Amino acid sequence: MFYVDGFVLAVPKANLEAYRALATTAGEVWMSHGALGYVECLADDVPEGKLTSFPLAVKAEADEIVVLSWILYRSRAARDEINKKVMEDPRMDMDMANVPFDGKRMIFGGFVPTVTFGVPVIADAQ
Predict the structure, then answer these.
(1) Each residue's pLDDT expressed in tens, for the chain with a length of 126 residues
(2) Distance (Å, rounded) from C-alpha 8 to C-alpha 41?
(3) Quick one: CA dihedral 112, 118, 43, 97, positive or negative?
(4) What is this structure's pTM?
(5) How many CB atoms lie within 10 A of CB 6?
(6) How far apart are CA 30 and CA 61, in angstroms?
(7) What does the alpha-carbon distance between residue 4 and residue 82 come to, in Å, rounded to a whole number?
(8) Are 31 and 78 in contact (CB under 8 A)?
(9) Cα–Cα distance, 112 to 114 (Å, whole number)
(10) Would you call 53 helix, strand, or coil by DSSP?
(11) Which residue from 60, 58, 66 is spatially nearest to 19, judged by alpha carbons?
(12) Strand, helix or coil at 67?
């Protein structure tokens, strides 16, 4: 079964073009090292909840938009191998103090799919 890395973060609306440029480069890097898919999504219908929500989770401010992104891999082992290559890729060499979002409020993690529809099942490469 495949493997997914997921990310949720808040980007200042004034930084959206810079974020798109960064995300485009990141997507090219991940895909060049073997990721099966790379997706970046801007919040469109994401209400702020009273107890929890995407905006609350990343402490989004009024001038920020929530971003949901994910990367699809053949397996956890493939993800670990690809991420190592990505981190060594000079295209990802950037000053984290100058990225167009607050990385301290980003939520991320790896996930094993449990139920899928419409996504091809990929044999585990392990």
Answers:
(1) 789 999 999 999 999 999 999 999 999 999 999 999 999 999 999 999 999 999 999 999 999 999 999 999 999 999 999 999 999 999 998 887 789 999 999 999 999 999 888 876 554 433
(2) 10
(3) positive
(4) 0.90
(5) 14
(6) 29
(7) 12
(8) no
(9) 6
(10) coil
(11) 66
(12) strand
Give per-residue burial for 81-94: e unless 16+ CB within 10 Å, then b.
bbbeebeebeeeee
Mapped onto helix, strand or coil, the DSSP state of residue 104 is helix
Distance CA 101, CA 124 (A): 34
Hey, what are 117's tokens?
Answer: 């529809």
Residue 89 contacts residue 33 (beta carbons within 8 Å)? yes
Q: And the tokens for 43?
A: 């919040």
Q: Which overall architecture, per CATH, does domain 3-111 show?
A: 2-Layer Sandwich (3.30)
